[in-house]
């Protein structure tokens, strides 16, 4: 992998943009990110003062890297036919990663995990040599591959995917986990034919139309589609080695060029669009999950508090999308909304579960309402319970208590057990 990275790093250096930076444009209008009227619409053009001469320089650099990537991609090392889960997060993020891995194991997924950490200063002997191996997980030190190259936080995700030993992989943010075994996803459509699955964010895409001039393609029609989130991504490197290298380029130069190009200041601007846009640039197949994501949270004292997102099963999503494309009509719920695929992932991105930090009774999430009652974080999510077959939040809190409070009399454990009894054991 070191030799491969040396070639990739040289290509990144040799074909880096030298033109005027693209950043600070936007934000898009509310109607751009959440149109009131469905139907065809034009992507917003907020980067409207970028000079042709500067664009020509950017295109030359981009074209040069594409040529280099096509040459380097066949050399990408990985273990053929291997499969696993990739995460990034050491140091202060170990607790979040451990939470996700533990919950994934409890949900029935036993795929091996590679957890990428920045350097040996982040290497925790107990975590990496004892706890994680007991969960079929291992620490991989990024600097053992990078050498002296310095990388920023926003580059960890794509480099973890690139450096992973797995051919087929699920990348998970440290605050995301599956609620069921995800192994079948690798063996079914849409993954078999596309090799890349991305999940939706809340907002419509706001890619700069100039990107399509950069790649010499007509502007993609995203009508009815959403922008991407990158809390979970599925890759088959045998299909997408070249687009993964291009995604690396987009992230390497993301803050000064491509992040703003792909979002134009929309909410969540960052690495999240780079993976799909790289596939589009190379005309590679990918599956955009159509099933809408759902906010997870609770009403507390008259205010809705958001804690995370439910993302849906791509196998069921693909079948329903094909059914609808063939003229089928989806069933609707009591609110008149189409019933799409069941949940497969929880992305607890707005309050991160950390097994190494036990909440105390002073924690805002454990506070009481005016009637003196403690509450669930997600209310009672009947849909999630019905469609997964178990109470995921109850399961989450049991996992935290089991992993932190076994035979423990710590004050925090007493507070957490009290919260659990008050909220879950007293429910009808």
UniProtKB/TrEMBL annotation:
Keyword hit for Transferase: yes
Entry keyword annotation includes Membrane: yes
Biological source species: Thielaviopsis punctulata
Transmembrane segments: none
One GO-annotated biological process of the protein: mannan biosynthetic process
Family: Belongs to the MNN1/MNT family.
Name assigned to this protein: Alpha-1,2-mannosyltransferase
GO cellular component annotations of the record: Golgi membrane
Pathway: Protein modification; protein glycosylation
Membrane-topology annotation of the record: Single-pass type II membrane protein
Localization: Golgi apparatus membrane
Coiled-coil regions, chain positions: none
InterPro entries: Alpha_mannosyltransferase, Nucleotide-diphossugar_trans
Keywords for the protein's UniProt record, in alphabetical order: Golgi apparatus, Membrane, Signal-anchor, Transferase, Transmembrane, Transmembrane helix
GO MF term (any one): alpha-1,2-mannosyltransferase activity
